[in-house]
Amino acid sequence: MTIAPDCQLEGTVIDFSNNAFSYDQSNSVQEFQVKILFSVTFTDLQKNIVIYENKSLLLTENYAPRPDIGTSSFKTKEEAEKQIYLDLFQTILKNSLESW
Fold this sequence. Notes:
alpha+beta
């Protein structure tokens, strides 16, 4: 007996950037911003309908490498990226459930 999946999630990273976001008075970088642009599609395979699709989902987070500067709660690029992935999951879940 073969069991077919009920749904399918497809996603692509279209663009990624990690750039300076804010500067102090001496023109030194205080914070950086990670931006990831996704294309995602969540499909109900039983009904053959797209539940959620966003071909230009942009998620961003800031981080400050030095804890004494900036307003970000993240200290590293990796922490900011992890939060973006959590936000991606939440966005897909929220928007998928709204259509049911």
